[in-house]
């Protein structure tokens, strides 16, 4: 180690620790000793000249190390705590501690050669390593404090990390526990003093003798509205609160009383103007505190707010007058009565409410003007009041007017007591709430009735139905039925003619329902175009059926609205209570709803009677719906592929991608088992997108595996509409997966073509530009687009299987099929016959020139693996 560096470093350390310069071991003092040591070593070298140069070098190094260590030990002895030398890796190279400095572990020398993490808790070790790295990287001194537990005692240490070399630091540690404890005691003492001042319930100001305001407490600010910033000096305070008299009061009132040598108390009162334009009456006292470092004397001034006590006398003086004014001018009725129920005082408002004069009321008792139906209740509650069971009573009652009518009131009664707590009289506050009672009744009616039709709503229906079911349990010979009605095509009325016409139609239907049913029955509107009829006390199902038939018959009669004749039509579901079935209202309503659903799907305009199988199927449908919502996210959909075989080459020229659902419980499900549900819950577009993406990916993969195979994949859209949004999605899919042009083929139905030919024509042109082929599916099934074929960008069509089914293979179907194929050839379109299951069909189709077939005769739908194997 270089001595000059060592000595200069030691001077810096001593300066950091606040040690006097005299304690620094100067290299000038050790100079002669070192020189003497070097001279001795030289003499020894001369004497032992036969020793080799290696021994000489080692002796010199040893001498230097000894001198350095002696110097190091002397420096440590002069320091209060310890010094450590640590390398970049965190290894202790030297560890020199003061004898009185407690350290972790055994002896200090045991730290040498160990790692920081071996000696300190993880958090402290990490903190130490971070400081080492930062000191070495910045070559700047790093300082921090930490707390360590040594032999069960917490020790607070101040650590300074000094860059020593490129890879080493010197770490200086000083025990500052006593200093920290003293600081903490001082802080706590000061905090207590400040807290006591801050929470004091009276105003306190601490200020210097030159007028500087050092602190005002929260109570001072709360009472005056002025903060510390508003009153930096007592002069500023005087200007704020005394206005034009500030100078006079400051000189003759405040200054003489701010005596900093003795405690003073002002016997006079001061009127304080607050920031809120209020006036307070304060009484001041002042006492001296300690001096500031600059020599200024500090004083504390305490004010007592006597505003309230001074004003109490005036308030008491005006109390009776104000009370009488309020009593007479109150907008509510006020009445004082004796404990036995006689009036002793009433205000004008109460007289006006009852129609009596004051003299007439004072001649009556409270019971006399109470409604007869409310008298017993009034006696009960007032008795509890007089027995001190309750402090006051608050109840609703009716008062009789002089003309014999009555009004509803909200009446509160309390007992007025004297200073000794003895009861003197009662005080009643009466408010007319007749309008509120009327409004509540209206609200209750509105809460249980439909706003548009005035019919009972679902809440009242359920309440009435529950009561009716209880009666059927008590009287089993009587039954009840629920008829659930849903208008047919009501949405079409709203969409085409507007909601105003729809509302008028609903009103007309509600009127007809009320005319059809008995007075003891109930017709309710439970939402939208749904109505429910509750039939009570019927002997059997036939009565319910008779009412349903009557409703169907009446609603077949057209309704004239807005110069139009509307034929509403209705589907009805009937559910019957039974003595052997303990229905709940919600269950009976649900079953009628299920039956109505079956009526809708059975052709509408009819009624269906509920049976248990309907409920099971409804539950199953709900389960399918719930499972279907998670099917895509769970990866449960998959595609099967059915070959399309060329009749001439007998080779597979294409596959039709067919959707399947691998239900976790039901197994493999065909589209017809769940597509209707998917359409109802709005999932069909997402499923179509998934089918397009999956089929496109698979087609691209096959074309990569079998480049010499001119393979196509047909996709049958599940949605019954061809929309721009679907083509946008398809365009994005094709941007990622790029099959051979026109090898991806969409199959669309004739119905899509005839719904909006011009729009569809535009979309087909766009598909053609995208390189996507189009085939018309189920051609000849219910629609005719022959006149459009030559205008459409399509590659072919699929002949509906009903034309080639052996059971329907009559002469007429044969002629139609042959004509379709002949027409397609003349237009350059390919023809595919689907549903081909027999060799007889194949032979006939081959004879009339059909291009390709698809059906179980050639191959059944197969998995991706089997289709890949077939291609190979």
Set out the fold topology.
Layout: H1 3-16, H2 27-47, H3 53-78, E1 82-87, E2 92-97, H4 116-119, H5 122-138, E3 142-150, E4 153-163, E5 168-175, H6 177-199, E6 204-208, E7 213-216, H7 218-224, H8 234-242, H9 246-257, E8 264-265, E9 270-273, E10 279-291, E11 297-305, H10 307-329, E12 333-337, E13 343-346, H11 348-354, H12 358-362, H13 375-386, E14 392-400, E15 406-417, E16 423-432, H14 434-447, H15 458-474, E17 479-487, H16 490-497, H17 499-516, E18 522-527, E19 530-538, H18 541-555, E20 559-561, E21 564-566, E22 570-576, H19 585-601, E23 607-609, H20 612-631, E24 637-646, E25 652-663, E26 667-669, H21 675-680, H22 684-705, E27 712-716, H23 724-736, E28 744-749, H24 750-755, H25 757-770, E29 773-779, E30 796-799, H26 811-827, E31 830-834, H27 839-847, E32 852-854, H28 864-871
Parallel strand pairs: 22-23, 25-27, 27-28, 28-29, 29-30, 30-31, 31-32
Antiparallel strand pairs: 1-2, 1-5, 3-4, 4-5, 6-7, 6-11, 8-10, 9-10, 10-11, 12-13, 12-16, 14-15, 15-16, 17-19, 17-22, 18-19, 20-21, 24-25, 24-32, 25-26
């Amino acid at each position: 180690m270089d001595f000059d560096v060592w000595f200069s470093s030691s001077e810096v350390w001593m300066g950091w620790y606040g040690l006097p310069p005299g304690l620094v071991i100067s290299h000038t003092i050790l100079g002669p000793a070192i020189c003497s040591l070097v001279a001795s070593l030289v003499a020894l070298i001369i004497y032992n000249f036969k020793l080799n140069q290696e021994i000489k070098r080692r002796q010199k190094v040893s001498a230097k190390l000894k001198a350095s260590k002696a110097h190091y030990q002397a420096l440590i002895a002069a320091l209060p705590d310890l010094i450590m030398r640590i390398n970049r890796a965190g290894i202790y190279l030297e560890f020199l501690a003061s004898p009185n400095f407690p350290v972790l572990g055994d002896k200090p020398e045991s730290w040498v050669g160990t790692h920081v993490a071996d000696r300190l808790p993880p958090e402290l070790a990490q903190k130490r390593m971070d400081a080492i790295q930062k000191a070495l990287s910045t070559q700047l001194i790093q300082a921090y404090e930490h707390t360590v537990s040594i032999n069960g005692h917490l020790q607070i240490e101040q650590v300074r990390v000094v860059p020593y070399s490129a890879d080493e630091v010197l770490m200086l540690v000083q025990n500052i526990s006593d200093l920290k404890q003293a600081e903490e005691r001082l802080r706590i003492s000061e905090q207590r003093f400040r807290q006591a001042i801050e929470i004091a319930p009276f105003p306190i100001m601490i200020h210097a003798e030159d007028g500087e305001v050092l602190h005002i407490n929260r109570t001072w600010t709360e009472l005056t509205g002025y903060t510390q910033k508003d009153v930096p000096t007592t002069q500023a305070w005087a200007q704020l609160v005394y206005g034009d008299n500030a100078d006079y009061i400051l000189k003759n009132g405040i200054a003489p009383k701010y005596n900093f040598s003795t405690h003073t108390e002002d016997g006079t009162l001061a009127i304080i103007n607050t920031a809120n334009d209020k006036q307070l009456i304060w009484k001041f006292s002042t006492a001296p505190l300690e001096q500031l470092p600059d020599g200024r004397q500090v004083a504390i001034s305490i004010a007592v707010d006597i505003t309230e006590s001074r004003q109490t006398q005036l308030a008491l003086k005006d109390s009776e007058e104000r009370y009488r004014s309020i009593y007479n001018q109150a907008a509510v009725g006020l009445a004082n009565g004796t404990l036995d129920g006689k009036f002793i005082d009433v205000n004008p408002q109460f007289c006006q409410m009852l129609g009596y004069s004051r003299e007439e009321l004072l001649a009556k008792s409270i019971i006399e003007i109470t409604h007869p139906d409310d008298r017993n209740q009034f006696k009960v509650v007032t008795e509890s009041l007089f027995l001190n069971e309750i402090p006051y009573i608050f109840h609703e009652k009716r008062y009789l007017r002089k003309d014999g009518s009555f009004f509803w009131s909200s009446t509160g009664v309390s007992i007025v007591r004297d200073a000794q707590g003895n009861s003197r009289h009662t005080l009643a506050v009466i408010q007319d709430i007749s309008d509120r009672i009327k409004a509540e009744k209206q609200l209750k009616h509105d809460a249980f009735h439909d706003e548009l039709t005035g019919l009972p709503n679902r809440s009242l229906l359920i309440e009435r139905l529950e009561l009716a079911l209880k009666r059927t349990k008590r009287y089993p010979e009587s039954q009840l039925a629920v008829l659930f009605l849903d208008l047919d095509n009501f949405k079409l009325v709203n969409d085409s003619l507007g909601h105003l016409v729809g509302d008028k139609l609903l009103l007309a239907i509600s009127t007809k329902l009320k005319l059809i049913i008995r007075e003891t029955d109930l017709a309710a509107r439970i939402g939208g175009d749904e109505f429910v009829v509750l039939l009570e006390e019927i002997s059997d199902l036939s009565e319910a059926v008779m009412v349903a038939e009557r409703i169907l018959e009446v609603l077949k009669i057209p309704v004239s609205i807005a110069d139009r004749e509307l034929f509403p039509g209705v589907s009805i579901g009937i559910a019957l209570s039974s003595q052997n079935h303990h229905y709940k209202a919600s269950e009976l309503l649900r079953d009628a709803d299920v039956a109505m659903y079956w009526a809708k799907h059975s052709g509408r305009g009819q009624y269906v009677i509920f049976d248990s199988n309907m409920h099971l199927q409804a539950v199953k449908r709900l389960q399918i719906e719930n499972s279907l919502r998670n099917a895509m996210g769970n990866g449960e959909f998959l595609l099967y592929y059915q070959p399309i075989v060329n009749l001439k080459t007998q080779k597979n020229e294409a596959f039709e991608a067919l959707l399947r659902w691998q239900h976790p419980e039901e197994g493999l499900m065909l589209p017809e088992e769940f597509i209707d549900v998917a359409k109802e819950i709005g999932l069909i577009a997402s499923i179509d997108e998934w089918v397009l993406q999956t089929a496109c990916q698979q087609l691209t993969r096959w074309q990569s595996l079998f480049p010499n195979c001119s393979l196509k994949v047909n996709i049958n859209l599940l949605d019954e509409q061809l929309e721009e949004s679907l083509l946008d999605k398809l365009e994005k899919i094709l941007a990622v997966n790029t099959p051979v042009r026109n090898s991806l083929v969409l199959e669309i139905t004739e119905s899509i073509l005839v719904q909006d030919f011009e729009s569809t024509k535009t979309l087909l042109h766009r598909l053609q530009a995208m390189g996507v082929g189009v085939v018309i599916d189920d051609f000849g099934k219910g629609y005719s687009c022959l006149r459009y074929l030559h205008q459409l960008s399509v590659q072919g069509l699929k002949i509906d299987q009903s034309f080639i089914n052996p059971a329907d293979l009559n002469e007429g179907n044969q002629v139609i099929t042959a004509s379709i194929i002949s027409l397609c050839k003349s237009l350059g379109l390919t023809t595919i016959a689907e549903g081909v299951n027999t060799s007889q069909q194949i032979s006939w189709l081959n004879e009339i020139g059909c291009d390709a077939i698809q059906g179980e005769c050639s191959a059944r739908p197969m998995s991706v693996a089997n289709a890949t194997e077939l291609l190979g």
